[in-house]
Amino acid sequence: MKQKKKKEKISFFTRVKTNKELLLLSLPGTAWFFLFAYLPLFGILVAFKKFRLTGSNFFTSLLSSEFVGFDNFKFLFSSGDAWIILRNTVLYNAAFIILGVVLPVIVALMLNELRNKGMAKIYQSSMFLPYFLSWVVVSYCVFAFLNPEKGYFNSVLAYFGIDGISWYTEKSMWPFIIIFMSQWKGVGYNTVVYLASICGINKTYYEAAVLDGASKWQQIKYITLPLLKPVITILLIMAVGGIFKSDFGLFYQLPQDSGPLYPVTNVLDTYIFRALKTNGELGMSSAAALFQSTVGFILIMIANKLVSKVDSENALF
Amino acid sequence: MKYRIVKRALAVSVAAAMTAGMLSGCGKKTETNEKGEEVVELVWYQVGDAQKDAPDVIEKVNEYTEEKIGVKIKVNNVAWGDYNQKMQVVINTGDDWDMCFTCSWANDYLQNAQKGAFLELDDLLKEEGKEIYDTIDERFWEAAKVGGKTYGVPSEKEIGSCPMWVFTKEYVDKYNIPYEEIETLEDLEPWLKVIKENEPDVVPFYLTKDYSAPTYMDKIQDPVGIEYGDDTLTVKNVFETDRMKSTLKTMRKYYEAGYINKDAATATDDKSIKRFVTKGDGQPYAELTWGKVLGYEVVASPIMDTQVTNASARGALTAINKNSAHPEKAMEFLNLVNTDEYLRNLLNYGIEGVHWTKAEPTAEEKAAAEGKDYIYDTKVKLEPAANKDYAVPYWVQGGLFNTYVLENEPLDKWNTFKEFNDASQEAPSFGFDFDLESVSTQVAGFRNVLDEFGKSLYTGSVDPDEYLPKLQEKLEATGIQEVIDEMQKQIDEWKATK
Amino acid sequence: MSSKREERKKAKMIDKMEAEVCEYNKVKKPTNAVLNVILAVMSLISILPFIFVVIISLTDEQTLAMNGYQFVPEKLSLYAYHYIISAGENILRSYGVTILVTIAGTVIGLFLTGTYAYALSRKTYAFKKFFTTVITIPMLFSGGMVANYLIVTKVLMLKDSIWALILPLCLNTFNVIVLRTFFKTTIPDSVVESAKIDGASEWRLFFKIVIPMAMPGLATIGLFLTLGYWNDWFNAMMYIDSQNLIPLQYLLIKIESSIDWLASNKAMMGINGIQIAQNMPKETIKMAIVVISTLPIIFAYPFFQRYFVNGLTIGAVKE
Known about the structure:
By secondary structure, chain B is an alpha+beta fold. Helix content of chain B is 44%, strand content 16%. By secondary structure, chain C is mainly alpha-helical. Chain C has helices at residues 2-24, 29-57, 61-67, 79-86, 88-121, 128-140, 145-155, 163-166, 173-186, 189-197, 202-213, 215-231, 234-239, 248-264, 266-279, 283-298, 300-305, 314-318. Chain C: It comes from Blautia celeris.
């Protein structure tokens, strides 16, 4: 027993010794994570406390505040709509995760195959533009199209003799609008990773394939996509962790916070925002975030396990 | 070799950054003024954008206050939209701040007081703050009490806001409408009909998504509260009161008759749309402001008597940090701001001769205002070019009644405000604070339900027969009954001590 | 002399061969046309709102109030830009802050992300799993705003300092993992191993071999960092009190959030809210700020795009 322990100890030190240089490379980043990510983690405790300013600062107040167990989490499930909200959150995110891989990969492949490289650059740059506009600004622009009184869409409908649609109360359109707008904003940004990965692929593969008489399609299928797999896999695993989180502006600003649309636009983040608007209880917002993170963490672990069973090279751990 | 240089450079820069940080943290040195008193610096958080010329104005303020009471201030301005979030962080962190703006609608006064963020001021008000305690209307002080203790110095201004019908003067004149007699929602009907029939381009009753139907209740915890005039203090859900039920039916009737714009529940105010009447929350001289915004004259008539509630009387206060190192100095300073004519106007309008100049009121005006309260023998003429570099929301810094009025305003403006305040009735629930701690889970669910149905119901966009039950059902699911019961319990206890 | 000429000749021949192969391996012209059409439509949809924003910033304020947003406004005006130029100082200073923060942050960020990701990408690294876990936890869990504020202002003493705009953003899990994957897929083990046999240290290996080979990956992360810094306003809102340290984006976001907030608290604030709203910058000015804060960053993309060429081949490194 004693001997075994000793052995481990020695092996740990030797491991440190042999990995000295790599450890040194890890050091600056680790220091950053320690200071900016791990030190503040004590704040999670507030999710289980009824926070009151009893001390002179947050830390001392936190320690002396009353422990309330899971009370702060209750509000997440107290509403009759909890089920609808969870459903919306998960379904939208599922759509985003899938489209967030499929569309950018297709766009990256198209851009890569263009004969006129100059145009490719122009396309790439323009598709990047939406990323820079905030949801508030985007919502103004969308309003110019969907505005029931003066909007462009209703004017077009009127031109063809069709009655205008009250876009901001008609909920059946919104799942489509939201998914469309999310991809509109994200596709340029998401394409970059894949484009860079394709550039990183060694040219000799293609040369060899051409000599073997492979068609373009075959090259994509047998060279490009398999070589993109590691990036796709890792991005998917990370995306799964965000399944309970959502882009607040997309669900709040874009539909102009319109009540009749709630059944299809209310997601966890908007629900939490509204719930805490009247009641700024620190513990409750912390509890909400912790709940979202914990679910995300569990899902990442599961996804990682699944991937590593099939293909351990490409897993997160 | 290179790597060693990189490493050394990194080490040096990190060390430099650290010391720079430390120095700025501990750079305070003691100063004294001419009287030999130690000068202390107070950090004051205010809502509203920082003004370009603020540093100059604050320098002037400091010159004056340093001499007078040994205080210097450092003002931190936070944008309107960020104030709640930033103050939540600053206050809960226990950051270095001495005074901050607080009220019922931003940086919530009640919650902060209940959670122990603010200093109890009652003792200080007997000493350093005695002057303001005596001059400011006692109802403001009453409203500032939470659980019997005072946690903020109120800015004296209008004590309540008064819901009003705002009519476009053009149509009032054209159809000879006796607008002053119009009071309730129902009173509007014949005139809406007239406009609908005769003015096809005009929206008779123009509403936007922030409209809420006339409510005869102090919604202590929206939608739960006490009806105005109910001295039995029975806690109710506003959507279960007969008054609200009939109001919503009337709104629906108007909507179906085409009096209300179709997109009311989602619209934002589009000034190009011609309207006959809309609803506004008013105070003395509100017509002037509305008219200025719209670009044409309007007239207004109050929907009900102005009611004083906790929320309305807590329109603007300044609180002192519980952990402030210089609470007495802070109180002394607030006292000075609210009583000193020079300091108050300096903070309000900026530097005389730069941002504004004095303007002499006419003799007639002076004669007319003779004997009234809050009359000053000078008015303010703003310098348009410089003024835009120092335009602050007046009530954030202190009371309004000791500021000069603007050139184009009546000399007795503040006297009118005072009369308005005196004429305002106290709601039966005035002075009662709800502690929502035990029902915070239930309350958290309210907003989502109210936002989902409220706007559509208030504007008549949906049928109340169908949607009111839906709303009730959801409110019940979130536990509204428990909130009503808890509030009733608390209000009964409060009543017993009154 | 002659051998050099021969070599050059050989190189020329290889180039020619490659060019032929490339030409052969391009998509057919009709396919190319179809791809162009699809991409052009997508680009158009992407630019449209931005063009809209530019037009609105050039619309006459009065016309905007009367007619709402229009692609072809009745009356144009340069008022918004005049206004901004007259208030110039602030905007120029904010530009300065943003550019400084963006450049410094991207450089520091690339160093931290690169070193950390490289170590993780090495198969032989014994602590790979541990250091991956170290970064995975903060990807999901955070101590919340108040705890962050406490650490940054009271422990790290960064309140109201430009470092508060730089340091909190320079490293994140997503970038590390993406870069790690890039390293893993673009750098063959054989290269690393042979360099190690030659006696190169890990640092040398990283700077001399890995960085040149992984340029597309580093450019991607550099781009992400640049955009992150350029678009950041949250840290400014939290940690900055001095007016001369406010970055461009926060100037804009401040206006947006305030207008939004005033609109939703209209009933509570009554007349006061209307008066404040009147002092807020008008719509056209807001849009003009959007334009001037977005234009420069548009050029960041082509800058990083230059590195999206195939990384150096193994042979080049060995020479």
